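Annex B. Sample input.
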Amino acid sequence: MIPAPDICSNSISYCNMEDKELLKWLKEWFERFIGRFDRLDDNLQQISGRYNFLNGERLLDNQDVCQLLHVSKRTLQRYRTSGELPYQTIYHKTYYRESDVEAFIKSHFSKGGDPEKPDRDG
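Annex B, continued. Sample output.
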């Protein structure tokens, strides 16, 4: 078998530049490609109905929050009643905005602490 001629033998820097440009183009194309998959995944989650959204923000129900916080339904009810965890009732069902739950976690749970006993020191 005859080896293919080396096109780059006369101008090595030119070929390296082409390779760099090609790699840059491929990287940008791949990032756009993956970005489209990420957007598609987000759209499918919204369409699937698994999660509810209000004004573009994900809503969690009692079961989601209980599992996330590792607390009982009664403890979750105490957080609601005391006003520590904001909630909304929509069609007789209780929902929590994801951002409110994240803020609650940051302000009430210490690293490695007991989730049934919130950290009230700060």
